[in-house]
Specification:
9-stranded antiparallel beta sheet; 8 helices; alpha+beta
Length: 310
């Protein structure tokens, strides 16, 4: 992402997102104060009960206090459920202002289907547990795309438990032109967990093309496979390789990609839920919002770069 774009986002954050965060921060602080006062009141009541030996009266007083604390817990749940949509929509409003974007839509509980996820050929899995949220859909010019957060796990017979296959942001975009062949890009660090994906792609005619790529740092971090008719040199230009390596180095996140004809799939690992609000600490943080914005921007820019090369 260009420094200019990030600076524009910083200004937007200061003028639009930060005031909303401060408003919600005041609500969080008020709820916390009421919650701790309720706990203190309960402790005092219990102490008086023991000291004065008036258990019946104390139990009678505990009923309304208990109801009130239940109400506060409900308010905390409401705070958590409204925080992310409020902030997400503000970030998307900023992106909407770019002339290249069409209207961006956000749906908190919607997600990309399991069939679509498996159709990417990136992960070969039974996906025994498949959960998603935070669905974003839109267009970059004439290029439609959608993305969401996914948590995918499968059952391990060896360990008798569910193991993560993927956790992070998953994106699917459709190019305006047909691309010959197929390309698969996987993080080299997780090669031992991706043998089924590699074997499946090999059966489709894919072969390693690592020796034909110019960026040594890229080749050290990623495995790249392509079918014989795939224009991988043109699509994976030195600039594209450098951008992918830079993102991985800067964020510590792994990137998976596949290009299957017109369809492009990108998966970026994320070991925590994006923009989930804290209860016991402040949520007023530019870095928290910037991380989400940069992840989304990078994935869209990669797809846009591929689209321009066709």
């Amino acid at each position: 992402m260009s420094p200019h774009k990030l600076e524009e986002f910083r200004i937007f954050y200061n003028h639009t997102i930060h005031p909303e965060l401060m408003r919600m921060e005041k609500k969080r602080g008020r709820l916390l104060r009421l919650f701790f006062l309720s706990i203190l009141f309960l402790v005092v009541l219990m102490g008086l009960s023991v000291f004065l030996d008036i258990l019946t009266v104390t139990l009678f007083l505990l009923i309304p206090v208990g109801f009130y604390m239940t109400y506060l817990v409900y308010q905390f749940q409401q705070f958590r459920s409204t925080f992310k949509p409020n902030v997400m929509n503000l970030v998307l409003d900023f992106m909407d202002n770019d002339v290249n974007y069409g209207t961006l839509k956000y749906e908190e509980e919607k997600f990309i289907s399991k069939k679509e996820f498996l159709g990417s050929k990136i992960f070969v899995t039974t996906a025994d547990e498949y959960k998603g949220e935070d669905y974003i859909e839109g267009q970059l010019g004439e290029l439609p795309f959608k993305m969401c957060e996914l948590k995918v796990r499968e059952f391990s017979k060896v360990r008798s438990r569910l193991n993560y296959v993927f956790r992070g942001v998953f994106m699917h975009a459709t190019l305006n032109y047909e691309v010959k062949g197929s390309i698969l890009i996987l993080p080299k660090e997780f090669r031992q967990y991706l043998t089924r994906s590699i074997k499946q792609f090999n059966r489709l005619g894919g072969r390693s093309v690592d020796d034909y790529l110019s960026n040594q740092m890229y080749s050290e971090a990623f495995l790249t496979y392509a079918t014989d008719d795939a224009p991988f040199r043109r699509l994976l230009s030195p600039e594209m390789q450098e951008a992918i390596v830079d993102f991985r180095h800067r964020t510590g996140k792994e990137i998976y990609m596949s290009i299957l004809g017109r369809e492009i799939y990108i998966a970026v690992t994320e070991h925590k839920d994006l923009m989930e609000p804290f209860i016991f600490q402040s949520n007023v943080s530019f870095d928290l919002i910037r991380e989400f914005f940069e992840d989304v921007q990078l994935m869209i820019q990669i797809v846009a770069e591929f689209d321009e090369k066709n």
